[in-house]
Design a protein that fits this description.
310 residues; alpha/beta; FAD/NAD(P)-binding domain; 2 domains; 5-stranded parallel sheet; 21 strands; 27% helix; oxidoreductase; oxidoreductase activity
């Protein structure tokens, strides 16, 4: 069993984790990033609203960020984390490959796992018409026809947002709508076509992308895009093992202060795991703060150890 010793361990290699790695490594502490690059929701995105960079693919942005982090001195382990525990003043992390990593500080930047429909075409057309983020991708569907799948506030709010971009918006709700009266009223007064008690059977497309959704009742609706807004399940199991505080209303996101500190000393969080909005700009900003603060935490502990020895 391989054992890796590091100082700042960053879990997640998306924009938040990479920015944390760049800033922590520049503080001259040992930094290790663990996670699979292609798991980042930004990896397959098309980015047009990131300041100073008008158009770039998510994959290109991620790859450049990794190179920057490596140049700054960060090391990468392309594995998933299975468990985190605290042992004295260290954190002990177990990866899927059986590796054990010891760290003084941890930055949680693993994002959230979007709930999926699990229907044919969903995976195949991800990034080619299938999206899990209206805020991120609405701009790509100007004057087109789109469908939103879901029954709760995220789906309804997303549908209303899309009316400012798309030519037609269909809200496909597998059950009955479950939203506040205020949101229901806004939906009723909107141009959204609401299909309650309708379930998607398949997402259809061709080489260019999504062309339609097929419903279980046999209907087929021609669309250019499908937004799946079934809510988001935070990647919080690892955080819960450490006793990290979660948002009391949703229990899906990690609570942090302005320094990106959690309630557990030495544990920081950044990016989607801290909650919406799901934007690269937010993730990068939080990652910057988390990386700097984690490095400073490590340096303070170093000083304390030296004083004790002397």
């Amino acid at each position: 069993m391989r054992v890796v010793e590091t100082e700042v361990l960053i879990i997640g290699s998306g924009p938040a984790g990479l920015q944390a790695a760049i800033h922590a490594a520049r503080k001259k502490v040992r930094v290790t990033v663990v996670g699979k690059v292609h798991r980042s929701s930004a990896y397959r995105a098309h980015v047009e609203n990131y300041c100073c960079i008008p158009h770039v693919s998510g994959a290109e942005l991620i790859e450049q960020g990794r190179k920057q982090a490596e140049k700054a001195g960060a090391e990468f382990i392309d594995e998933d984390v299975l468990n985190i525990e605290r042992a004295g003043d260290r954190f002990v992390v177990l990866t899927e490959g059986g590796m054990t990593i010891h760290a003084r500080a941890i930055v949680l930047a693993m994002g959230v796992s979007r709930n999926r429909l699990g229907v044919p075409g969903e995976k195949e057309f991800l990034g080619k018409g299938v999206s899990y983020c209206v805020e991120c991708d609405a701009g790509f569907f100007r004057d087109k026809v789109v469908a939103v799948v879901g029954c709760e506030s995220a789906a309804v709010a997303g549908s209303l947002t899309l009316t400012f971009y798309a030519r037609d918006v269909f809200l496909i709700c597998p059950d009955q709508l479950n939203v506040s009266p205020e949101l229901a009223s806004r939906l009723k007064d909107s141009a959204v076509h609401v299909l309650e008690n309708s379930a998607v059977k398949e997402i259809v497309g061709d080489d260019k992308g999504v062309t339609a959704v097929r419903l279980r009742d046999g209907r087929e609706i021609a669309v250019n895009g499908v937004f799946i807004e079934l809510g988001a399940k935070g990647a919080i199991e690892l955080a819960m093992n450490l006793g990290v505080e979660l948002d009391p209303e949703t229990m899906q996101f990690v609570v942090t202060n302005k320094k990106q500190e959690t309630n557990i000393p030495g544990v920081y969080a950044a990016g989607d795991i801290c909650g919406p909005p799901w934007q690269i700009a937010k993730a990068v900003g939080e990652g910057c703060v988390a990386g700097i603060e984690a490095a400073e935490y490590v340096k303070r502990n170093r000083s304390g150890e030296k004083q004790t020895i002397d």
